[in-house]
Amino acid sequence: MKPALVCSVDALAPGACKRHQEQAEWLFTRVAEVAETESGYGFRFDFGADPEAAEILATWLLDERRCCAFLQLELGFEPERGPIWLRVQGPPEVKAFVAKTWVEKLAGRRLPVTP
What is the set of domains in the chain, with CATH numbers? Predict the structure, then answer.
């Protein structure tokens, strides 16, 4: 069965929804690289020694999971406080959704996109 590509706007309380949107805007300004994979995309964040940034990403990701339950979401932490990778994957419909809603937002920033 294919996932329904519908985000549940009612999954978060109004105040939490506003915070989620603000966190998304903040996080998208900190994406250092986009990597296309066979089933989705990876987004690299170079937060360095800023533990609050990683906490914001984790909190945002948990809320995103509530809103968009059809996404397969993974966080990968490189050793030595290296980059954090957010991987978003799923069937072709999900990959197309992520390309349109996430990757296109980043297009104006001229980030490296590795196939």
Answer: 14-109 (3.30.1360)
